[in-house]
Amino acid sequence: MDEEQLHTLEFLLAFDGRLHWYDQGYFLKFEIKRVEASALRPHGLRYSFTLHDPEGERIMGFDNAHTVAPAGRYAKRQAEADHWHRTGDDPGRPYAFTDAATLIADFFAEVERILTERGVSIDVVKDGTRNEGTKP
Asked: 83-85 and 93-94 as β-strands: parallel, antiparallel, unpaired?
């Protein structure tokens, strides 16, 4: 891992427990920890980045809590658990983890897409930690 990748990883690890609120009560929740590298988590990270609606329901997320069924009839199941949920009821689709910078960029691109579709400003109105609750 080069110095830039290490810096980005450390920056991302500092997001653990953070919440970011948007207009109308939408919010992001970040959970990320270092873990021992394994077949499920070869990069040594356990993470869950989620976008929630004003009622607190997850409407999109990237995580590696479990493996997901392969996409396509002849696709092979991935050994890694990295995946994303495009909607609240999406069981997950494989995500090709490359590095921390790409993960966070992909996550925020989806956040922007969803909030824009819903007419919600992408400007964060408040940030804090999960200890401060889920309302701005």
From this structure: antiparallel
